Amino acid sequence: VFLLFFTTHEELQTLDVDDAFFSTPEDIAARALKPQGGVNFIRTFKKQVEDQAINLPPNLNELVQNATYVQSPDKLVWQYFYNLKGSAKYPFPGGIFQWARYRINGTGLNETEKIFSESLNKHENTLTLATLRIFSNGLGQPHFHFNANEMGYVISGCGQAGVILSGVTANFNIGIGDVIFFPVGTQHYIKSLCDEDLLLILAYNTGNQLETLRMNDYFHGTADHILAQLFWKEQAEFKKFPTPAK
């Protein structure tokens, strides 16, 4: 079972090998592939009723006599396979964020991290992947991303997600198997509601540094006298908010 993410919100356009073959005129396919028997051999191929991309032949053992794969070198593998377990962890008060990310400064990265960090930056429409673990009754505080949509899949636990718009907040419960989506620039939060941890795998449609602004950062970064005007509270009261931890 695979969990797949694609960097498009449009209908996915896919052309399978068999679809391409059967859509090609017989004489063109024969001239391109040059099989023994020419066009007559091409005519022995019959299009199956079911899509073979998702349905294996019932007589697969008879059709395939040998299937071997040579192990690819790590430097090639890690361009397309991001080792989330081997990537850095970023603890926060409510949980742990583990992220296979691109980093401008590669100092301190292990060999695997360097490879997939460089790979992320090579591909224009790549994905940045992460896991988010929110401890029981913990909170992933309100934040938004300047340069990426975010999509998540709930692996375990249960919780609540919220999308905060101007004057409106949409809250909805999430559980195992649910997929959530936060458009770029949309402030959102996630909290755990179960006794067990809430665990999600997240995908961001950027290969660059993910630009994120959290509520405690922008609230504390706004001058006290501005906050006093906005909320009609004495300036000194805003000293009660602690400075965000780095």
From TrEMBL:
- What GO CC terms are in its UniProt record? Golgi apparatus; plasma membrane
Q: Where is the Cupin type-1 domain?
A: 107-239
Superkingdom of origin:
Eukaryota
The UniProt entry, under SUPFAM superfamilies, shows: RmlC-like cupins (SSF51182)
InterPro entries annotated for this entry?
Cupin_1 (IPR006045), Dynactin-associated (IPR053297), RmlC-like_jellyroll (IPR014710), RmlC_Cupin_sf (IPR011051)
What's the protein name? GL25 protein
Organism (species): Spizaetus tyrannus (black hawk-eagle)
